Amino acid sequence: MDFSDISLHNSAELEQLVLNVGFLPFFKNKIPGFSVEEMTPREYWFNDEVEGPWEWKMSIVRNWNCAYGTIFGGKSGYISLDWYPHLVNYRRSKFNFSNAPLDADGINRQKFIYDMVVANESMLSRDIKRACPFIDFPKKKLTPQEKLLGVRKEKGKGESFDKVITCLQMATMLAIADFEYECDKHGNPYGWGLARYVAPETLYGDRVLSAACTPDDSFNKMFEHLRRLLPEADELSLKKLLL
Length: 243
Fold this sequence. Notes:
By secondary structure, the protein is α+β, with helices and mostly antiparallel strands. It contains 11 helices and 8 strands. The protein has helices at 11-21, 36-39, 53-63, 84-93, 109-119, 125-131, 144-149, 161-170, 200-204, 215-229, 235-242; strands at 23-25, 66-72, 75-80, 122-124, 135-136, 153-154, 175-183, 189-198. The strands form 3 sheets. The chain has a 3-stranded antiparallel β-sheet, sandwiched between helices. A 3-stranded antiparallel β-sheet has the order 4-8-7.
């Protein structure tokens, strides 16, 4: 498939493309042209006059036809729900909480955050941070900019919050259910949308666990699909999208 002629102008076009191709990274990667970033004209990026890729992801996630999150080599992207069960089947076969390092206080941060989100059914990133005993928010009053950037300091040695959340998404243990804005005292939304995390099976149901094959078979099915879709891409680049 030739992606060089594709130009995305709204969320509907992007969603339909994901449904057609199955997998689509958000940012540039080792496969030239295969990303939302490269398919979207510059005038749609960070433009207050028109919605762009950062806004499109919110409506796409809410339609429940595609999953979005950190799933391609530690970076964001989309996958259709037709293919997501195979990604879950393969990635979870390679993941084990017992392999996660313990921090200085003996806490398995990956297991702690996962269990907390599951117990609450879903949680905003902000609320997860506030509930973690290993996140120490500064006691001084934060400026609006610092609040927007999520300024905090962590105590003890261990994986950072962002690293843990990335790991859990890559392992398909957590997914993004929505993006929600914080509001000022007048009720006006501001800043970037806060991600709401959830276990994929809670969000999409048992269909994400329905791959009727072995994990290796799931990997091979995804790889062969990408190879047909991107015949000019080298094998290593294709595999890195799935590992």
